[in-house]
Amino acid sequence: MAHEDYFDWTERLFDPAGAFSKPEALKGVRVLELCTRVFGPVTADLLADMGAEVIKIELPGVGDLMRYVAPRGFFWQNISPAFTHMNHNKYHVAIDIRKPEGAELLKRLAARSDVLVENFRPGTMDRWGVGYRQLREVNPRLIYQANSGFGQWSVYRDRPSYDATSQAMSGFSATTGFPGRPPLKIGIWIGDYTGALFATLGILAALYHRNKTGEGQMIDVSQGESLIRIQDWTWLLWSLFGKERERFGNEDVAVVPSGIFRCKDGFVGIAALDDGAFAGLCEAMGDPDMAEDPRFALLDARLKDENREAVYGKMRAWAVTQTLRQVEEAGVLYGFSAQRVANARDHYEDEHLRARRAVWELEDPLYGPVVEYGPGPKLSETPGRMRWIAKPVGFHNEYVFRNLLALDPETVERLENEGVVGRWADRIGAKPPEDWDGEKGRFF
Amino acid sequence: MNTTGTMDWYAWAKQQSDPASAAEKKEALDDLLVLDASYGSFGGLVASSILSELGARVIRIEPPGGDIARRYSPFGLEHGDTGLAYLVEGRNKHHITLDLEGEEGQEIFRKLAGHADVVIETFEPGFLDELGIGYRQLREVNPRLIYAALHTYGQFGPKARQGRQASEIANQAYSGLVYINGEPADDEHSVHAVPTKTGSWYGWYAEGLFAAYGILSALIYRQQSGKGQMVDVSGAECIMKFIDYNMGWYHMGGGVKERLGNYDPSVFPYTFIRCKDGYTFMAAYNEEAFATLMEIIGRPELTRDPRFSTFMQRTSLESEEALQRILEEWSTQYTVDEVIEKVQEATSRKEGRAAAVVTGKVCRPPETFQEQNWWDRGIFRRVQDPVYGELAMQGPLWKMTGTPPRIKWACRPVGADNEAVYCRLLGLGASELEILRARGTI
Questions:
Q1: Which DSSP helix (H) or strand (E) runs through B121?
Q2: N or C: which end of chain B has fewer CB within 10 A?
Q3: Residue A3 above 70 pLDDT?
Q4: pLDDT at position A4 over 90
Q5: What is the pLDDT of residue A303?
């Protein structure tokens, strides 16, 4: 048990109310994002959470096609929640980098940036004359992150790839779901997110190296490879024992017990990660003798097929007679892990998550009060933070063109007329709210 | 070197980032020392694996009997007395033993932390603090230290105070992932139409990867400030970041995101379809791509069917179900390879949006494992381990032109590096280690 004052101390150490009085880990790191959909934007979003200045460059008019991915066609103030949740704290500009003058603007920005993230098909940026080989000439310190389905030099490099392509081809889906049922497409874009997280890790390591040596580099990350990397024991089971990993439903076969169980009023995750916790669980189930039984007392024994099935059978029969609350309370009392299956409403109303700013309410300069998931890791000295959510296409043009590129209004107007730069099309998903007054939320 | 223009991008990128030549280059994190004191958690192990692949020296601290994580293995199968999962995430680490619950062990831990840049732990919140070796005490010894604590409920907040236990499944359950994953409930109350966990340990992998992200951010801050800090990581909260529009949609008044199995509320078709010999992914959701797909299955008239004629109409649940049936009436006549071939043949004659019919075989693990592309890319590789022999498994994944990652060995037995580490860092000789061993300290 912890010292009583430990949690008082951690609450002071991490006090979210003080976040804006502290420095940011990635302050001063400028990131150019040339991405659409999920894989690229999430990469830059994770950097923005930690204080990087992200400039999201979209095509004038329609912008990132993710703007139009909306659950059941739902938009709010002309923007989709599927787009806002992966585009925080970013500056939105619209430049057509396929045009020579647009490419020139990109080069000027790249000369003053630290990181560039792109997720075009491999070779596209190079063909346009703004790939890593060209940009490193203007900025040898640049870290160039190239995200793609299969990698920059894979034999499949030209194949289009969505998140579910990576779930399918990596084997991830084949091992999720129930025996005798179809493989399961995971309920989230897990290949995109996991790939984005790996891309972020590569970028951070490269920044650390660059800060020591001044050397930039190119990093190539594939969605499918990301999901292969995180499949724990799947590959050794096959290569060492010739056994194929199948779908085992909701019950773990490598940690016993660990799984999802039906209760009276919902579903709960229960695990006992060591023999002591298992003994506690047996007591909670009213069967302390089970923990003494040589078939179950030790993890090694519980992992055997028939013993595992007996343990899970016992747990299923017990859980269904309990409420979620009873199981969670028993977990605390008897020392095993118990957590109900939570949904968005549970998170929204959860005081713990609110206190930690894992659920973060903020007032967006354009859209007003919004609630988003806050930064993942909580850093005591340099906490991440939420400033604003995504903005219409080209919303921050003036700010970036003036401050970073020192373009005068006449030049901007000419570039707009030539379609080199621009702003939103008159289209839901791309444009500001209907009642926007032309000024609210703008930066200068 | 000026190769631009004389070599195409793909060849250049391969030449510069092929993992086969990684050993010739520098490592990004080779000036760092990491202590991984995690116990019973692959979250901590994954975090230190990532840092080690990128060059950090990692010392794994286990209790004298070894970490129970070595025992987590499917059906109890082991190789060289070690569980299969541990053989994957023991990589590149030096393994020492130390009893953190005894005073002598605590003193040694403090000394080790004096040398370290990063400490990773996964105990109950406050456990090490109570022993006098938590961040609050270690930062006095080493103000540059970055201390990462991984736990489902984190290190502060109401639920952290309740003494709730962490686990991989608790991370998944609390995050919202389980709630929206799986087949929708059916009338029969069936066993399979329930909230469903992912097959592999996403609750631990996401937590470990996010921990490494927090640690690296903190290290970058330390480069300019010289200051260490504490990093509090809840695997549950990390996965929340990845639950598509869950929070925003609810707040904005759209509703609670529910599970839909292989359907998708925002784009369709975007699903797995059954074929003669397995499944394949099939997506064609913009108008032009949908028309291409309807041509492929020989039903071009369906683009004018009021149920399917626009993007929006296709994403109602009824339309998705109907379209799924229509697609499978066609696809079950062919093998997966035949379906993919038909799609590729048709899309090769199209351009732009009309070519966006995207497919990919739902591979069973042995099929993924035998795909040559993954071997060429080094994501699968054979590691020649001095103790455990040849192991064919997943490698590091980044292809980096400057500081490529590497795998140096797979795993080490419990306490295998006691002599080397304690001698090098603390100057302890064989006779002193013998005494520590006899007392159960190491």
A1: strand B118-121
A2: N
A3: no
A4: no
A5: 98
A192 is catalytic: yes
Answer for the pair B162, B197: CB distance below 8 angstroms, yes or no: no
The ipTM (two decimal places) reads 0.98
d(CA B196, CA B259): 9
Q: Is the pLDDT of residue A1 over 70?
A: no
pLDDT, tens only, A121-163:
999 999 999 999 999 999 999 999 999 999 999 999 998 899 9
All structural domains of chain A? 6-230+366-418 (3.40.50.10540), 258-342 (3.30.1540.10)
CATH topology of domain B270-362: formyl-coa transferase, domain 3 (3.30.1540)
The reply to whether CATH 3.40.50.10540 applies to domain B16-242+376-438 is: yes
Tell me if A205 and B162 make a contact (CB, 8 A cut-off): no
pLDDT at A90 over 60: yes
| pLDDT tens-digit map of B134-170 | 999 999 999 999 999 999 999 999 999 999 999 999 9
Which of A209, A221, A328 is nearest residue B403 as measured by Cβ atoms? A209
Write the pLDDT tens digit of every residue in A94-106. Answer: 999 999 999 999 9
pLDDT in tens, A277-301: 999 999 999 999 999 999 999 999 9
- Give the DSSP letter string of A360-400: EEEEETTTEEEEEE--SSEESSS----------TTTTHHHH
Task: Name the nearest CA neighbour of B139 among B164, B166, B122, B119.
Answer: B119
- pLDDT above 70: residue A417: yes
Confidence class of residue A16 from pLDDT cuts 50, 70 and 90? very high
In the prediction, which pLDDT does A2 show?
Answer: 57
Which residue stretches of chain B have pLDDT < 70? 1-5
Out of A49, A96, A192, A364, the active site residue is: A192
Residue A17 contacts B, CB cutoff 8 Å: no
* Cα A425 to the center of its chain, rounded Å: 28
Which of A31, A39, A62, A236 to probe the B interface (max B CBs under 10 A)?
A: A236
Cross-chain Cβ contact B360/A237 below 8 Å: no
Count of residues for chain B? 442
**B364 to chain A: which residues are within 8 Å by CB?**
171, 174, 244
Test B248 with A84 for CB contact under 8 angstroms: yes
How close is the nearest chain B Cα to the Cα of A79, in Å? 10
Distance from CA of A268 to the nearest CA of B (A): 7
Contact B399, A219 (CB under 8 A): yes
Contacts by residues A426-430 (CB-CB < 8 Å, ≥ 24 positions apart): A427/A62, A428/A75, A428/A78, A429/A67, A429/A68, A429/A70, A429/A75, A429/A78, A429/A79, A429/A80, A429/A83, A430/A61, A430/A62, A430/A63, A430/A67, A430/A78, A430/A392, A430/A393
Measured CA angle at A68 (ends A64, A70), to 5 deg: 130
Burial of B342 (0-12, 13-18, 19+ CB in 10 A): middle
**Smallest Cα distance from B293 to chain A, Å:** 15
> A393-403, pLDDT tens digit by residue?
999 999 999 99
Contacts of A122 in chain B (CB under 8 A): 9-10, 13
Which residue in the block uniquely carries the two structure tokens 């639920």?
B159
B270-362: same fold as B16-242+376-438?
no
Q: What is the distance, to the nearest Å, from the Cα of residue B389 to the centroid of all Cα atoms in its chain?
A: 25
The better pLDDT of the pair A31, B1 is held by: A31
| All structural domains of chain B with their residue ranges | 16-242+376-438, 270-362
CA distance A110 to chain B (A): 18
CB B89 within 8 A of CB A319: no
CB contacts, 8 Å: A7 with chain B: 125-126, 155-156, 160-161
Predicted TM-score of the model (pTM): 0.98
